[in-house]
Each structure stands twice: as C-alpha cells, then as structure tokens.
C-alpha cells in the first residue's frame, strides 16, 4: 500500500453540513449499473483487475488451519495457469490483494503464505467482529494480538451505537485508539451500513472514520441483513472524494458482503472509475471483500478464453458430467467444435460400456442390465447423427437434456477421464 | 476491427479503459433497404413517391448517407390535407374506446419494432428511446378512452398540422401528434430532416395497428415553407409547432391571416437555470450537471447558478468529474467559430475556464467547458452559443438565486437543488418557468404539463391541460378560414379616428362626456381628444376619450405595480373582491340597464336581464376563484408532481360588440379571478355600458390598476396592446385584418392570442353560459407550471 491517511482533527461543522439526496443517489446507482458494456478482451482484462483487488475471505466458525491453507494457496494462484497463459498474463503477478481471516487464524495464514514464498498480506477482522459489542479494552487487545501475529491489515468495526446516536466525538476517539493500536498496520473501518439508518448517517460515519485515520472504509461485515449495495457505495465514495478534495489524502474503499458474481465485480470497478477515477481501481485504494466471487470470475474468464481466443485445454482435475454439459453448451456455440465434443462423449461412452462389462461379467447373460443402460447409449448415437446435420437443428439442446444425470434418475458412475 | 484486436488484455489491464460500444444497426438498415433507401411521403396510409420530386439526404453522425426523403411540393401538401380531411371523418366517427384500442395496438407494435426504431433514430441523429414513446402512447390511449366521459362538450378541431424544426426531437413531435390523434383529430406531421425516417416508420406501424388511412400523414421537406403551404389549405383547423424560436416566429408570420390558430412551443435553445443552493446534495447536483449540460443534442441551454458558500466545492467537483471527459462533436461545421468567439468573450470579461483538455486548434469538436464567473449580462448567457459550454454564475442569498434564475427571457424549465423543502417550494413558486425539477433535471412525462412561460412559447403540451389545444367547445364555432389580406403591418392602427362633428344638436340634452379608467382613476385620454358615441338612431349620445398608445402604456404601468400583489392574494380574498363587485353592480342595476337601453336600443326588460346575467357571471367567477386548482399528476417514477395554474400577468382584452355589458363582465371576471390584471378596450360601437361600469369598479375594493378601461379606435388600441412587451395575452374580438395583424405582430415578443372574428363569426351567445365556454375562458386566463419533486 502507498501513503497512509494521517487523519485530521475532528471537524464537526463539516460533518453537520452533510446532505444526501436519496433518490438522486439511487438514480446514479442505476445509471452506473447500466454503464458497463465491456466485451471481449476488455471484459477479461477488467475481470483480472477485479481479481487483483479481492480480499479473499473466510470468516466462518469452522475455519481450520486446513481450509485457511487452501485459501492462501488459492490467493497466490487465483486463476488457473493455463487460462492466464492463454491470455498472456501468466507472468504479470495476478494474485488476490490479500487474504482475510479471523484473528485466531492469522498465524496459520501467515505460516501458509510464508511456506509458499508469497508476500501477500494477511488481513484480519478485529474489534469484536461482527457486532462490535464487546468492551473497548478487549477490542483494543484483539487488534494488538492480530498485529503481533503478523496481520498486515486490520478490518475494525465501528461502534454502531455511537454512530446511530450521533456521538461523533466518541466514535472519533475510539477509531483513533484503534488506529494507534494498529501501529504501522493498515486499518480498514467497517461501517456496517446496514445498521446506520440513513445515507446521511453513512456519509457522516465515513467522514468521521477517515478523520480518525482509516486507510480504507468498508461497507459491511457481511453479517448484516443489508450488505454492500451500489447506492450506499456511492455515498461512501463521495465522502472519500470530499475528504480527498479537502485534505489531499486518498482513502481506499472496500465493499464487502454479498458480492458473488463476476458481473457485480465489473459494476464495482465501473463505479470506482466513474466516481473517483482510474487511480481508485488498484488494490491500494480498492478492495472487494468476497469469498465466492473468485470462482465465478474464473468461470467467466474461462468462457472468454474459450469463446474468443479459440484455445482449448481439457486438463481438468475434477469434472463430473454436469461440468461436461456446461462445456458442451459453450462449445456448441461454435459450430465446428461439434466433432470434438463428439469424440469426448464417445470416450466417455466407451469407458461406460467397459465398466458395464466388468461389473456384469458377460453381457449375454444379463440382458436386463444392458437394457437398463441403453438410455445412456442411445443419446450418444443420436448425437452422432445430429452432429453431422445442419447446425440449425435442435441437436444441442436435446443433447443437453438427455445428458444431464437427472434425465435418467441415475448418478453417473465414473468421473470424466483425465 | 483492427483497432480492437490490437489492444492486448495486458494493455487494458493497465489502462482500465472502457471497451468500444458496439451498436448494431442491422434491423434499421434492413427496413431502409426494403424502401431502397429512398423514403417517400406517407399519405393516405401508404408511401407515395413521385419521381420528379427533389430529395433531401439524411446523414449519420459520420456524414455517411442513411437514406433520402422527398421534398414535398404544393400538390403533395394539398393532397395530404384532403386525405387528412377524409381520415378525420372516419377517425372522429369512431367511439372513444376504438380509438384507444388502436393506440394500444400501436404500443405492442412499437414494442415489437422498438429495436428498429431506436436504431433508426440513432442513424438519423435524433436519439429517442422507444420506452418513452411507449409511455406516451399508453398515456394518451387512456385519454382517448376517457375523452367523452371526462371532457364532455368539447369536440376535436379537425385536421391538425404538427410542425417541428429540424433540431427538434422525435419525443417532442410525438408529444403533439399523439394527443391530437387521441382526441380524434387527423394529423399532418411535418418532421425535421433527422426525425423524418423514424416518423415515417411510426406512421407505417400506425397503419399496421389499424389507424384508418389518412388520419396520420407525414410530409417531408423544407419545414418552414411546407408548414405555411399546408396551413393554407382551408381544411386545416389548427397548427402547432415545436422547436427553436427563430423558425417558430417565421412560421407564425407566414400563417398570419389564414384564420388558423397557431401555437408555439419554443423549448429548443431556451436558457434554463440550474440552481444549486447551499443546502443541496452537491455531489448529486454535480452529477446532474455532468449528465445533462454537455450533451451533443440537448433540449435546453443550462445556466449554472451556485450559491457563493458552496461555490468552491461545486467547482472542485466539476473539475474532478470533468477530468476524463472527451470532446463533444458540434452540430454544424460553422459552429466552431461561434464557440471560440463566445469563449473568448467570456474570458475577456473575467471568466475562468474548466476544461478536461485544451480544445484542438480546429475541427468540429470542442471539449466540455465551464465558464466560471461570467456576469448575467454576458453574451454567452443572454444568447447562448452552440457547443458544450456551461456558464457558471454565483449568487449570495436565496432571493438572489431566484432573481438570477428569472433573468433570461426564456421560461422553459429550471432545475433546483436543495434538501430544504420550504426553500424548494418557495423557489418553485417564484421562478417564472413552465417546469421546475427539484433535485432532478429533464424529467419528461406526458402527465406533467409542459408549457413555456415568457418567450418559451404559448402552447401547453402534456397532461390534461395539453389536450385542450386539440379541442374546441362544441358550442363555439372555429375561427373562420380566410386567405391573408394584404395588411400593411407598419401602418395598421395608425390612422387617426375620424372626427364626427354632430349636426344640429338636440338642445334638450347635451351629450355627456365620459372619462376612461386607468390605474384606478378616471381620466381623460393622453391626447385629450374625444370621439362621439352614437345612439342607435344616429344621434350623438355621448363623448368618450380617444385613447391611444400612451394610455395603454399608463395602464400597463399601473397594472404591473399591482398585479403581483393581486396574484399573491389568497383566492378567498379575490373571491371576496368579486362578490363585492357583484353587490355594487346590484346596487347600480337601474343605471346600468338604462345605459344599456340607451346605447343599444335594447328594451329595458332585456337590458335588465343582461345586468342580471352579468351579476351571475361575477358570482360564478368569484366562486371559481378557490375551486380552479391544478392537480397532482401521477407519474411512473416515485415522487410528487404538482401542476399549478398561475396567472398570466397583464391581459389585453378587445371586447366584442355583442352583449356589451355581459361580455365585458364575463371576460373581466375570468381574467381577474385567476389573478391577472386586465386592460379592456370596449367596443367602439357600444362603449357606454363599460364606461358606466367604471362607477361600479371605483366603489369596489379591487386594487386600482387591476382593471383599466380605455376607449378609442379598436385598431389603434389593438396596435398599442400588441406592441407592448409586458402584455402576456390578447383576447380579441374584431376584424379579420385585426386578427391577421395580431398573429403577425405577436410572434415576437410572443403573446398568447385568443382571436375571434366578429364579421364572419356567428355571434357568440353570451347569455347562455355553457360549462365548456367558462372552462375555455379560465384555461385562457392561466398558464401552467409543473413541479416535480422526486423521492426515494
């Protein structure tokens, strides 16, 4: 991260002058959601940029060193190597921005990353996450412990009681103390916007958190009923701009909670670009707090490389029939790949028959079993027929329907061959 | 494609630029191809294309050819109107619900072909969204359904001509075409160059949806000459225009004297204030500015007014938001010179610039530019130049902000930003504009009446209010058609009144000398001379002052002093004044009847009856004072909308000869009840009842100046009223030449006209007040303002 926000004395007059017009903010949010129409390589590039801004997060009661280790590994290699290679991005250092865990797992994460020879920072939530309803003393202690364990970034939660009742001085004091406890460690303040009532309050809380020296302001813990929404983000981002215009300090923004799809991540990037400019599109000023977003982005990147660059790789580790169906669907859009698909399905079919023979001994002796498996063979033969017919025949949809395991009431017995 | 493939993912990953927006125009191209890229006129339900017509090329934004349209000639113009006349017969004979059904069928047809329409609009550089048109159609199909039940006693006008200037949008055109159709009229639409292809497509869709042939005809060509050519046809009963001021005035003058009412919506190019108070959500306000102020095709020229206390933060945000903006293409090649000159002049007057990048040394594009700190008197504010320029002015107090907003001669719309509700409503009330958008801008919905105040037009579009331009009361005849006479506009009404020296006076009674009534005082005319009033028998009955230009001037000066106060008075107080006027008239009943009798030769009983009816009229209008309010239109977006009727200001009334007392009292009451001041010119034939009525006015509590009565030559006084810039409307009963003169003269400065020709007009029966006639009167006496307050 770059220069930190040194904070400033609490300016209550500034806070009191805040005005937010809800409908105008909602309208702006809609406008931004309709803005991004990036396609092709633009979409892929923006998705990769989104990956570099992710704080890959696990905040569950059942976190163990094992799954934290897996998380760390995923963070260092968020997108499959072959996909990156097909886009010529394999050596550009595409990793997530950080991993984010509970304080008790910080040591595990630091260890895992060190073992993998990675310099990715470990972020930790602290201060009685998510409710913040513990005494100030224990909250401060929590921060210090996490820093001691090697956390490079601390996500603190503000005291909603103080914000809701308008006790801005008290809130300012608390956040200042957290900042002090953080020392050199960067501090992100979680505003828990779902519990602040109004947009005006969100704006004010953002200002106070920044005055107290937050390096980032973050929407929510992910545990409230309302998480990161675009309108609320616009309000916070405007507070950041306001603070920047008045003080010259750049504070980062981190939406978190409920961000699951690649499309959403693109809207977030658009929002930052439109409101704050290109500088706020990099991990030192923008983070996406998410746990399941990465999988969707990877899937979309995959789609991109397969529909636009025409390079195909099938070195998958675990793919069941459902995945195959997805793959067929994708390839089906490109007419001349039908033959290739056909070959794949044939392989699958052959193995299926051989297993059948092994399990039944001799197929002549056990006709009912053969008949039972006939539905598996039939669609494949039909597919063969259709794949050589004109592309406007409904071969693909029909194939998909018959290939899905549900159509037969059977679970596939074999994984897709490596 | 080469440019697209050359960018690698890595490049984009670093620059984080937006990808190119690809827009396909395949469906529109296919439609154009099906017409061989040469669109004909749309007359009588089909495309008509004669080989010997000149054509006009429609080009896309890069100058490439899109298609060609026909330039219609006289023959086409008359063909379209006669087709319209037969279409009108079929269409107006349909029951309401069938008309509504046709409009609704077009909705589904439009939804099917929305893609084609929007592509066509983009190609022809007149962007428009099909969804907005769908909303228009749905709204007006509702009115088509309800016409007879909600607006009884009104009938469609007949063949209506809708003319728009070349730079006018498709939406503005359809905002006139659709209500005209919904009310049962036939329409001849004359679109501009860019709007022609989409309108032709819509006309085709309309026929597909079941609109009888001839109900909607589209003729293309040079808008102005075509407009007057079509209007010449005696079957045309109304012309309505939307677009820029210059073309509107030309059209108005060209059609003067044809006996066709013409109304203008001069929305294009109007200067509209964008006022940011200190209590505003500054970020949202700046968002609004960025969104609307620098567009290539924009309806109005914004003028940004910012309260001094938030000046710095507005400027800082503008700088941030404008940083990444690209240059905006100018509409015409020659615009660049004008833009450069305007910027240079502003800079010379001390303005500083905010620009994302310096302008390229030449070329037809200019970066968005804010001219910070220009004076309200600067040319770039008064007569805005084309191009993406935005003047930025400051004000200190709320009142000053409103004054600044009212500074321009236009009164189209205003956007004001504040979180303070009281301030918002107060400012909305004081701004003399047709539409006020609180914390928002450019909200267009057909349910909100859109009417320009001041020089921005004399026509109301949208809402129930906007329907009446396409209707007339069933009981009142339309303006009789005529062909323009050769009226010398410069000498009209300048002849001195003929001096009649009575021969052989009757010594038993010397004729009485009356005084006129100006600014609450009885007085002689400025010229000091009088004219004599003859009794039915031809003897001299009395002398009345021979008023002229100076008397009108005095009356207007008195009126503008009291009118704002009169308008602000509570409706109840105005009602009280009118009731007291009625009571005083009651007391003077006998005198008035005698005066009527001696003036017109009416029997005393009948004269007494007319006085009685006049008292009833006064009471009617007194009662209406606090009943005729606007409404709360329901708009698809969430928020509150208000439509408010407001007084026009000073109204000049040239009174008819028939029922001299009753007609005067009815018109006076209508105008005054709605908060206007009136300057009345009694009929030169029968002025005595009006002059007698001065006694009644003097003993009432109406503030002096609200009503003035000036006698004299009708033409002389009409000329004086028409040339006074303060007078907002003229209601005229008189000669055909007078109507022609008014239509010609009142195009600039613009006035609302309500014209009646006494010679050919069947005499209006004042004694039988139909509800629709009173409604017509009060709609003539007000202008509309819509206020839109969006809420979450």
Automatic annotation (TrEMBL), chain A:
Catalytic activity reported: 2-deoxy-D-ribose 5-phosphate = D-glyceraldehyde 3-phosphate + acetaldehyde
InterPro entries xref list: Aldolase_TIM (IPR013785), DeoC (IPR011343), DeoC/FbaB/LacD_aldolase (IPR002915)
Chief localisation class: cytoplasm
Cited Gene3D superfamilies: Aldolase class I
GO biological process, one term: deoxyribonucleotide catabolic process
Superkingdom of origin organism: Eukaryota
Annotated compartments: Cytoplasmic granule; Nucleus
Top-level enzyme category: lyase
SUPFAM superfamilies: Aldolase
Pathway assigned to this chain's UniProt record: Carbohydrate degradation; 2-deoxy-D-ribose 1-phosphate degradation; D-glyceraldehyde 3-phosphate and acetaldehyde from 2-deoxy-alpha-D-ribose 1-phosphate: step 2/2
Keywords on record: Cytoplasm, Lyase, Membrane, Nucleus, Schiff base, Transmembrane, Transmembrane helix
EC number: 4.1.2.4
Record-level GO cellular component terms: cytoplasm; nucleus
GO terms assigned for molecular function: deoxyribose-phosphate aldolase activity
Transmembrane stretches, start-end: 340-364, 370-388
Function summary: Catalyzes a reversible aldol reaction between acetaldehyde and D-glyceraldehyde 3-phosphate to generate 2-deoxy-D-ribose 5-phosphate. Participates in stress granule (SG) assembly. May allow ATP production from extracellular deoxyinosine in conditions of energy deprivation.
Subunit comment: Interacts with YBX1.
Family in the record: Belongs to the DeoC/FbaB aldolase family. DeoC type 2 subfamily.
PANTHER family attached to this UniProt entry: DEOXYRIBOSE-PHOSPHATE ALDOLASE (PTHR10889)
Official protein name in the record: Deoxyribose-phosphate aldolase
Organism of provenance: Oncorhynchus tshawytscha (Chinook salmon)
Name of encoding gene: DERA
UniProtKB/TrEMBL annotation, chain B:
PANTHER family for this protein: ALDEHYDE DEHYDROGENASE-RELATED
UniProt protein name: Aldehyde dehydrogenase domain-containing protein
Pfam families: Aldedh
Organism, as annotated: Oncorhynchus tshawytscha
One annotated GO molecular function: oxidoreductase activity
Domain Aldehyde dehydrogenase, first and last residues per copy: 49-472, 531-757
